[in-house]
């Protein structure tokens, strides 16, 4: 079970801020997770269409798309940040 | 060394006074205050365009990132004290968004560390701005390449 968080326009396109998902066995890293989420279509496919503008954090640390994901992880997907 | 992420406003004078209080080895305090502005030069839009900003953030990760940035500043410069306050929620033009203050025995460290913290904060701290505009309604602010370039600049410098 993964805890997924979405922020900013990824949140508004997907339509929810947070969800818990059980992913298929073949999903072992961030890239695989994103592919699987895109397969759900709709807002997911739209929000994740251009990965140049998607950042990922696993357990609140920035990670590359090659980073592994395992049960219990908190995975956040969000656009490049614009604070300050 | 302090990081605060809060909805409410802050008192710059009181914060800066408290930062150096009781440490007479501090020779200078450098601070930066970020404000909500009502225009959007990148989009070619003048005064009055932006009616409000809403800052969204990632509770937990935000604090961790700001603490890591502060720790990095402390590792690079001899700081006596350091403060980062960043607000979230809805703010109108003229309101304060962020305060960064660095205190050191010498001004160079205070100036450089303050600028470094802002540059890294802009590209690493998980905040996102939603603008309310006069003509377009609401829109998410895009990240700027110039901010990334400013942050990258510090990677090239020897410590």
Task: Provide an overview of this structure.
The complex is a heterodimer of chains A (84) and B (159). Helix content of chain A is 26%, strand content 24%. The model of chain A has no long low-confidence stretch (mean pLDDT 97). Chain A is globular, with a radius of gyration of 12 Å. Chain A has 84 residues and is α+β, with helices and mostly antiparallel strands. The relative contact order of chain A is 0.28. A 5-stranded mixed β-sheet of chain A has the order 2-1-5-3-4. Chain A contains 3 helices and 5 strands, in the order βαβααβββ. Chain A has helices at residues 8-14, 30-38, 42-47, and strands spanning 2-6, 18-21, 55-58, 61-62, 74-78. Chain B is of the alpha+beta class. Chain B has a 4-stranded mixed β-sheet, with helices on both faces. The two termini of chain B are 20 Å apart. The model of chain B has no long low-confidence stretch (mean pLDDT 94). The chains are: A alpha+beta (84), B alpha+beta (159).
Write the layout of secondary structure elements.
The complex is a heterodimer of chains A (84) and B (159).
Chain A: E1 2-6, H1 8-14, E2 18-21, H2 30-38, H3 42-47, E3 55-58, E4 61-62, E5 74-78
Parallel strand pairs in A: 1-5
Antiparallel strand pairs in A: 1-2, 3-4, 3-5
Chain B: E1 2-6, H1 12-20, E2 28-35, E3 50-57, H2 61-76, E4 79-87, E5 89-91, E6 96-104, H3 107-124, E7 127-133, E8 137-140, H4 145-156
Parallel strand pairs in B: 1-4
Antiparallel strand pairs in B: 2-6, 3-5, 3-7, 4-6, 7-8
Helix pairs in contact in B: 2-3, 3-4
